[in-house]
Amino acid sequence: MTVCADLVWYVAYGSNLARERFSCYLAGGRPEGATRHYTGCRDARPARDEKAVTLPGGVYFAFNSLTWGGGMAFYDAELPGRTAARAYLVTREQFCDVMAQEMRREAGADHDLSQALATGRQRIGPGHYETVLKVGERDGHPMLTFTAPHGAGRAVLNAPSAPYLTMLARGLRDAHGWRTGQVASYLRACPGARGVWSAPAISALLRRADAAAAASAPRASLQAMFAAFRPGPGLPLEPAAG
Questions:
Q1: How far apart are CA 123 and CA 146, in angstroms?
Q2: Are 105 and 149 in contact (CB under 8 A)?
Q3: In this structure, are strands 141-147 and 7-12 parallel, antiparallel, or unpaired?
Q4: Which of 65, 82, 132, 149 is the most exposed place for a label (fewest CB within 10 A)?
Q5: Res 236 pLDDT > 60
Q6: How far is 71 from 50, CA to CA, in rounded Å?
Q7: Are 138 and 124 in contact (CB under 8 A)?
Q8: What is the DSSP string of 109-149?
Q9: Whole-structure pTM over 0.90, yes or no?
Q10: Best CA proximity match to 170, nearest among 23, 70, 47, 9
């Protein structure tokens, strides 16, 4: 498939729920709490639009993330309940590049997604995030996500790390406006996290993250102010002696 400018909705249900995290996939960068720097897409422009959405099914945590440590989030349409997600309107090229980065591959492969668009499912490769699902349509554009080729019942479940949960929580609060208690209840019920992370433990984790962010904000603001300061004509760089 040649480079195509057609737009699709990339539906994120894991750490890419957080806009700041997803921006690293598009433009490159290292998200807070991660150990990896992302190269970004060939087309580094931001998403054209974004929407908070929900999908039938659920999220589970499995395998081991080299970026975050602990289990990674996967979508299983057969699980009970609803999945909170965020849809980003991107080009097909950007969608393919995001999927490549999820698999630690170089961006640049323009996959033919016609099978996914026609049947709702297409396995691009053997990796954990190389099974593309069409989960709906919105404003005339297909809604696509990617997940593991199997569901939670055949996965090696693994609890997520604290930094990963924190990033998911930021995305849920930002995209859906959820409060801490609702976020904690949602995440602790996911297979893989269930029985390892309790709702009070997740709530405490998020409160600590909020407190740390609040404490660093004034310091960051002062640093930005001094960095932007430039002495004007006749203004000394150092205090006058005497």
A1: 9
A2: no
A3: parallel
A4: 82
A5: no
A6: 26
A7: no
A8: -----HHHHHHSEEE-SSSTT-EEEEEEEETTEEEEEEE-S
A9: no
A10: 23
